[in-house]
Design a protein that fits this description.
Layout (H helix, E strand, L loop, with lengths): L2 H12 L12 H4 L13 H9 L8 H4 L6 H11 L6 H6 L18 H7 L1 H14 L8 H7 L5 H28 L5 H18 L2 H5 L9
Bound molecules: zinc ion (ZN).
């Protein structure tokens, strides 16, 4: 076995190139065609998928990893949908802070639902975005709504999701700015910024030409 094959062998079973004395399946079997029980031509991605096994797909997967999202928007959305952003209610629970009052309204406890949807500031941002997109958004749990939203146009759905993920990211940024520097941008400013992100992304993806054939456009 040459050096590359040895590295592949070790990486498949241990995740490193360190030498292993034994492995669960013979290398020849690993390289056997899939129809005959092997992995087929071995690549790292094939080996990784195989080791992951059959895991249930989560319904929010196409929303969070929508290909029109910016990666940083996907990441914050991924944390948000799991309730893993470091909101003040969580920080209070961990004993990091003593007061969980929302810095943006100074009125309610800051948890995910309040910070992202129910706070006056966030609510105003969502209203502006929904008007522009021409969709009716629920008052809370907008990310979850995306997962079950039925839309006849796949392109429209992808754009709306990209805009929603961009808004969640910007709300999180605005919240952090308010918490650290005691400054809160105007909702109109946050909306304009989200709008510019989505539009510039659209130009990169040449959405505008596709819109010539569509009845819906957030550019109208
Ligand atoms: Zn608030």
């Amino acid at each position: 076995m040459d050096r590359i094959e040895l590295i592949c062998w070790n990486y498949l079973w241990s995740g490193s190139e360190d030498f292993l004395k034994t492995s669960p399946v013979a290398w020849n079997k690993v390289c056997t065609d899939k129809k005959t029980g092997g992995l087929g031509r071995y690549t790292i991605s094939v080996g990784y998928s195989w080791l992951q096994g059959d895991q249930a797909k989560v319904p929010c997967h196409p929303v969070i990893w929508n290909r029109l999202n910016l990666p940083k928007h996907s990441f914050i959305g991924w944390l948000a949908i799991q309730g893993r952003l470091m909101t003040k209610d969580r920080l209070l629970r961990f004993g990091v802070i003593q007061d969980s009052t929302c810095d943006m309204c100074m009125d309610q406890t800051e948890d995910h639902s309040h910070m992202l949807y129910q706070c006056r500031f966030s609510s105003q941002c969502w209203t502006l975005l929904a008007d522009w997109l021409g969709v009716v958004l629920p008052g809370t749990r907008i990310l979850e709504w995306c997962c079950s939203w039925r839309c006849r146009s796949l392109m429209k759905k992808k754009i709306v999701i990209a805009a929603i993920l961009a808004m969640i990211y910007q709300l999180w940024l605005a919240r952090n700015l308010c918490r650290v520097e005691c400054q809160l941008p105007l909702p109109a400013y946050v909306f304009k910024f989200v709008q510019s992100i989505v539009q510039s992304k659209g130009q990169n993806w040449k959405w505008t030409s596709k819109y010539q054939r569509m009845s819906w456009s957030p550019w109208m």
